[in-house]
Input
Amino acid sequence: MKINGNAIRPGNIIEHKGRLMRAMKTQHTQPGKGGAYLQVELKDIRDGTKMNERFRASEDVDRVRLDQIEYQFLFREDDMLTFMNNETYEQISLHEDMVGEPVMFLQDGMTVSIELYEEEPISVVLPDTVICEVVEADAVVKGQTASSSYKPGVLDNGARILVPPHIAAGTRIVVNTADGSYVERAKD
Output
């Protein structure tokens, strides 16, 4: 599907220079001289290499449509992850690199979307947020204000994140899987 160069959004998959690339970040730029363009940070889906490209509105770009199928995460064996198709019960094993950095938030039984391009798995997409338990949190330093300072905390999966001062060890919190940031206290 052809789209204008300035219609690229973060998360879009495009075919560029014979490779499948995911748009990571986009920024519209209007220089003093010349026409406006869209600066796009692209990441190769297969090997993870990154590049920055400029696209003008007059350029056409091939946007790739991916099939998304829901799978359930079953288990991890070394650096391989095994998932089961929720409809056919067929199992598939993929390398943890397909998930990327959010792999630390993968939980047993979690439903994920596996993106396929021409029947080949390209990437694994986790839910936007996940509930984790804080197992370790520094004590609050007297005089700190809740609005401006966060303290380090360790989650039950070993991830280190910054949490607000009122969060103590044993508290269940909601975490953004994309960047590993604190969202809110989990509602029990």
In short: The chain has a mean pLDDT of 85. The two ends are 44 Å apart (CA to CA). The chain has no helices and 16 strands.
